[in-house]
Amino acid sequence: MFLCGGILSLAGLAATCFADPAPAFDLGPDEPAFAMGGNVARITQTGSSQSAVIDQDGRSNAAFVTQAGGSNVASIFQAGVQNAMLVNQTGYGNQTSSSQRGNGNSASTQQSGNGNASSIAQNGSGNSAAIQQAGNGNSAQVIQSGSRNSIAIQQTGNGGTATVVQH
User: Which among 109, 105, 103, 102 has a CA at the least distance from the CA of 141?
Assistant: First the structure.
């Protein structure tokens, strides 16, 4: 499954319905960390002054950050079982912060341009969120609690603001 209308699985983490898909990552059942019930985290950075932090507690969680350009900041926290998070940042001065607590949650953030900011906070099980920002100075925030909530935000242009809260 893929994040398109709200669903992202570990096997489909690399594909989205947005333009400029993320690089492919093999997260199938043969991934060594998953075979042992462990977590997977990967950070790929090109450019200058990039910052990324991944903190995972639980098992079978996956998090990937790809940054290109300069001065981009990404922070990921996941606690629980089988949560998945993907962040792609291209440009300068983009910031994203994502937190997931519970089981089977998924989130994707794609930022291209400069000075975009986003945050995702999910608590519960089976929630999914996607934010895509293309342009400059956009801001998006998602807060979800409970189970099986889904949201996708797409911002194109400059200076857009979006906030979604679901319980």
Answer: 109
Give the pLDDT confidence of 12-54 residue by residue, as tens digits. 443 334 433 333 344 555 555 555 678 999 999 999 999 999 9
Separation of CA 153 from chain center:
12
3-class SS letters over 49-66: CCEEEEEEEEECCEEEEE
d(CA 83, CA 68): 24
CB 65 within 8 A of CB 47: no
- Measured CA to CA, the distance from residue 12 to residue 3 in angstroms comes to 8
Q: Report residue 105 as tokens.
A: 């949650």
Cα-Cα end-to-end distance for the chain: 24
Locus of tokens 């609690």 = 145
What ranges do the domains of the chain cover?
Answer: 32-166
Helix, strand, or coil (residue 145): strand
Instruction: Give the bridge partners for 27, in sequence order.
Output: none
DSSP of 17-55: SSSSPPPP---STT-HHHHTT--EEEEEEEEES-EEEEE
